[in-house]
Amino acid sequence: MFQSKVQITRTGGGKSLVCKQKESVILMGLDSAGKSTLLARLLTGQVMETTPTIGFNVGTLDLDKKTSLTVWDVGGQKSMRPNWRYYLDNCKALVFVVDSSDRTRMPEAQKALKKILSDEKLQGIPLMVLANKKDLPTCMTIREISNQLDLPSYSERLWEIQACSALKGLGLQQAFMSVSKLIKKS
C-alpha cells in the first residue's frame, strides 16, 4: 500500500508556513483496468508489480508548488464495488479507469460507472475517464470508449476522457493536471 505524505512549504525566510491545498480524488474502475499500476507509476515514476487491490491504496501527487492531489485507488473486483460508496466523502473528482483494449468488459464498465455516478455524494463532482493501455494495438479510440460508456449522456456534469498508458507512463501527468483544472472549474 502507498502512504500519503504531508507537505509543508516554508516561504518568506521561514516566517510563515503555507500548506499545500490537497484535493481528494477517487480512482475507480473494473478490476484489471490498471488503477494500481497507474497510481504507482504516478507516485514513483516506475512500473511496480501489483496484485489485485483488496481495500485501497492512497498516495499524494504533487502537481505544482500550490496543488497536490490525494489519490485513493479503490479495488475494482465485483465483490468490492458495493463498498465504493464508502470512499466518496470529500471527493473532489472521480477518475474512472477503463482498459481500452478490453471491448468485452465495456458494458460492465458502463454499468459500474453509471451506478457510482448516481450516488448523491458525487452530484456536481467532475469526472475524468482514463482510457488506459493505449500502448496496446487492440485499444479502442477515445470516441468508441466515450460512446460505449455513454459519456455524452452526462451533460449536467463536467467530464473529460483521455488516453493513457500506466505501463509506459504516457499521458498520466497531463491527465491529473486536467483533473486539477476540472476541480477548480466545478
TrEMBL record:
SUPFAM superfamilies: P-loop containing nucleoside triphosphate hydrolases. One of its GO terms (molecular function) is GTPase activity. InterPro entries: P-loop_NTPase, Small_GTP-bd, Small_GTPase_ARF, Small_GTPase_ARF/SAR. GTP binds at residues 29-36, 76, 132-135. Gene3D superfamilies: P-loop containing nucleotide triphosphate hydrolases. Belongs to the small GTPase superfamily. Arf family. This is ADP-ribosylation factor-like protein 11.
